[in-house]
């Protein structure tokens, strides 16, 4: 990343802090949700863009993180009673695994650690068995089906198809108040910056070079004495933890989590965010997540009956004409204009110097 790019990204990040001053509350809530998606995209880019492992099941890790935080919010909303969906399902006692979620700290740590541990187990067992490429993608989708089926089937403990909703407060503060929404937005923005810096440190370190080597030539790396399983398991687990963190932040702003939000279609859509922005570039993943969700929101508002056609056309255009994403197109444009006009300017300066010397 060049110095100019860093300045532009830093300036853009700074502008996002001014958003609460120039937008309304609805837009702040929407943008906060998109920033949480940006955090999720960073995790997917680490595992797909840098390591070359296409996971189509990251909706599971995102959803698990969201469910952990939603359980805390649901218990706070219910007070001393059982959550409403448990009463409707005939549950008479609070399940033991719900009890720890009265604590916000436990819910927050679980939203990160539970997806991380699940990803570590799935990743280790898969990579040790040398399951990769399309087979790993199919396996990750199977994981989505298993988890969503489990959540739907255990309606008395998970809310079933409807999921968990009707949250009222967090720390006693109304979730719908402008002040709370602004605080959640700023926290999400700060977490995005922190996760970005952490991810950038990984990809610029020796570990990052090993991950790229796995993507470009895993067998050659193995012959050099490295153990790809260990590195792939680490980055997959780390990516799952990031997805869980994004889910926890998202549910605080969306106010609902259901199996439909972590199904196969949302999981594939998450990968498309990274493809649109440009895989293998962390800022491209964040930009892709923001632009794709802004386009989705804009199209659905302006064309409620046919917005899916517009979104589908955008996906096709990205795959057909922008294989390295928006970031790749912008980079090539800069190079073109630099060669086209920068060369002319340099030639004029050279001629001017020659005339001056003569």
TrEMBL record:
<dbReference type="Pfam" id="PF02653">
    <property type="entry name" value="BPD_transp_2"/>
</dbReference>
<feature type="transmembrane region" description="Helical">
    <location>
        <begin position="183"/>
        <end position="212"/>
    </location>
</feature>
<feature type="transmembrane region" description="Helical">
    <location>
        <begin position="134"/>
        <end position="153"/>
    </location>
</feature>
<feature type="transmembrane region" description="Helical">
    <location>
        <begin position="233"/>
        <end position="258"/>
    </location>
</feature>
<dbReference type="InterPro" id="IPR017778">
    <property type="entry name" value="ABC_transptr_urea_perm_UrtC"/>
</dbReference>
<keyword id="KW-0472">Membrane</keyword>
<keyword id="KW-0812">Transmembrane</keyword>
<dbReference type="InterPro" id="IPR043428">
    <property type="entry name" value="LivM-like"/>
</dbReference>
<dbReference type="InterPro" id="IPR001851">
    <property type="entry name" value="ABC_transp_permease"/>
</dbReference>
<feature type="transmembrane region" description="Helical">
    <location>
        <begin position="306"/>
        <end position="330"/>
    </location>
</feature>
<keyword id="KW-1133">Transmembrane helix</keyword>
<feature type="transmembrane region" description="Helical">
    <location>
        <begin position="7"/>
        <end position="28"/>
    </location>
</feature>
<feature type="transmembrane region" description="Helical">
    <location>
        <begin position="58"/>
        <end position="75"/>
    </location>
</feature>
<feature type="transmembrane region" description="Helical">
    <location>
        <begin position="104"/>
        <end position="127"/>
    </location>
</feature>
<feature type="transmembrane region" description="Helical">
    <location>
        <begin position="270"/>
        <end position="294"/>
    </location>
</feature>
<keyword id="KW-1003">Cell membrane</keyword>
<protein>
    <submittedName>
        <fullName>Urea ABC transporter permease subunit UrtC</fullName>
    </submittedName>
</protein>
<feature type="transmembrane region" description="Helical">
    <location>
        <begin position="34"/>
        <end position="51"/>
    </location>
</feature>
